[in-house]
User: Fold TonB-dependent receptor from Pseudoalteromonas aurantia.
Amino acid sequence: MKKSVIALSIAASVPMFSNNVQAQDAVKPIEKIEVTGSKIKRSDMETASPVTIIGAEDIKASGAVTVDDILQDMTAAGGAMTNPGVNNGSGGNASINLRGMGAQRTLVLVNGRRMINSGTGAASTVDLNTIPVSMIKYVEVLKDGASAVYGTDAVAGVVNIILKDDFEGAELNVQTGLSGEGDAQRNSIDLTVGNSFDKGNMVFSLQYMDRGEASQADRDFSKCPITENADGTELLCGGSSITPNGHLYLENGKELQGSPDGAYSEYNPESDPYNYSEDSYLYTPMQSLNLTGVVNYELSDNTTLFTEALYTKRWSEQQMAPQPVWFDFNYTEEMGDDLLEHGAEYGDTVHYRRRMSDTGTRDFSQVVDTLRTVVGLEGVLANDYNWDVALNFGRNDSVDKLSNLHNVGSLTEDIENGVFNPLDQASWSAENMSDYIYTEQNTGGSQMLNLSASLSGELLELPAGYVGFATGIESRTEKAWYTPDSLTSQGLANDPKVEPTSGSYDVNEAFLELAVPVLTDLPFAQQVDLSAAVRAFDYSSFGSDSTWKLGFTWKVNDEFMFRGVRSTAFRAPTVDELYGGNSPSFQQISHALLDSQAEVTVGGNDQLTPEEADTLTAGLVYEPQWLQGLSMTLDYYDIAISNAIGSVDNQFIVDSCIDSSGQQKNQDSAVCQSANVQVSNGKATFNNQLQNIGEEITRGVDLNLLYKFDAMGYDWSAGLDTSFLHERIVTNAGETIDYTGLITSSTGGYADIKSNLTLAVKSNNWSANYKIRYISGMDSYACVSEPASCYAPSTPSVMYHDLSGSYFINQSVKVSAGINNLFDEQPPYYTGNNDSNTDPYTYDTLGRYFFAGVNVAF
Assistant:
């Protein structure tokens, strides 16, 4: 039987291709396996849906020590993906976002079963930091909707991480890395041991990783917040209007800036803004410890006990500029006469802002514990039906802290009582402020209990082959919680009060899947198969519904195969989306007269209903006989989501509801009424809670070329993996935005073309890999309406070059080294950027990075 290109090829998004699996398959009997996207075991990997396979050796060759390092480089990934380069709001998490449809619409599995939502607070997505690279056997990425097979969340695709379960011996890996600027050092060590015995096998792994930080101040492109002059013709080193020594707004319209000597002068918007980049991380530090074990034990000839246990502890940090505080007070004689010369009068209201550089930076830290255990039985019945029952339990607990905050409630009270004089610079000294400083501590977590049972096999024989089936039931309970700090929950801190989150739901599901052979061994129809799946579900939070899938594979001959899938998908609102308490979030906006950070209230909505989606994929697989080793896949995808859960783009709210003079407009529109926009003293405040208000559409084409050949006595692999985005349309509250080819300030970029070109060569004792990552240029969303007013209304195309290699010193020791971003490509600046004057969701912010490691097998 000729193996499929999907079975043999490793996606061109990774820099090396493993060949040892083929050699082993040649001497082993063909076995039936389960491929991501189907629960029917089969003897080949030809399915109706496109599946990318990433091998463990390919991950190591890239220098990746966390799963997101490799997944986020895939051309099918885009939009907002949290990673170490995201300092503001990441919480130390890492995520994967297939098709740029949102991380919450990509389902993450481990060994075909759900991974617990993890991270900080009442997490809604999987933190990829919880999954150890050392235990990965391979990763399957299904780029298709699969709700009929897996249930909720599998809208844009599925990432299935397969753990090692047949490893024998012991293996030690040690790796270190360092940026070209001498920072962001990354050290990792892992030990994996395994053994097979008469009744089964066991594998255990220990992995530790320590990642250092880099500062925005240490890169030319991010050393200060870049602003543009009024007509967008010049770049200036700007910052925040909330400054050290105090920024005052008087009733007569004057703005004053304090100085260390206690004097006040008129605020100069060109020279007085505060450079918050100097105190912000460009790359965030983290430590993680992981323990993983997989054990299989044969209870009888036909029954096996399987267990999986995974525990990860994460310590992560972020650092931002000192806290901005603001309050109003009445100017009294006891405060001195410094303001009188500027036209103020006693009794006037003074609007006061201050950057608390007196007491230091805001230091964020998280300690997160994630546990996942699976215990089950599987076996074969007398009629060769496969069965399994399993219990999948997961729990995530987090404690996140924010230090160097100030109790503005107490501070305001002392000002009113005449105990604290805000106009006296000595009052703000670190010693005097010690009674007002506190550390915010929040706790959160999530828990999942999933009971499942399934049966699969061959129902009957047709002229073209056997009809395969899989059926099963699942019962899942999920709960999540978040308890904010007591001061924060009471609104006694500087920010508005943050409400707690608490809630749960349960769901019962049943599914049926069929694989039907229709034709075989006919002219122009070597094999034609149909597939179908249906899943019914009943949620306690919203009720019952169902989803379905229909697919086909038409293998014309040994060279051509056509495939396609039409399906419906859904995503149930998570506990956080349903019951998340309202909380403030400071988001980047662009407005000539307003502060660059707006105070946006976000939160859940218990009236949310599920998102629904219609998905279509259709493709061609081509393996020409005239050139052995060459293969090509070409797949079209179309995902249309209705009833989408989301919030309106923050910049869209600003553009729709605030005019050029900083005044409210369009207050009768649905968007502005819901947002309740307020503008006060140069600062915008509005609401942006979750709603079922949208529709989202994405369409495009994936092209994969792979050529494996022998030359000069070596094994070669050349691959090209390219994604062409044709449409990325979002409709919220009746307003439609086409994000195709745009880059935003909050949701990342949607490049028209993303492409990875790889070349790998391998001998008996060494290998080398070269990879080019290409991202096409994009237009800034903030400049779409008036590009002439922006200094950088678009980004150029960006190309990264990665080089790596390994050498076997002997049969037991292998050394590896590499350079990512070989030519030190700098991230582009664009008007309306996200952070660090660029987009850390999309671009590499570290620059050239070196890594080296050693592998010792015992």
Notes: The CA atoms of residues 47 and 322 lie 54 Å apart. The two ends are 36 Å apart (CA to CA). The longest strand covers residues 437-462.
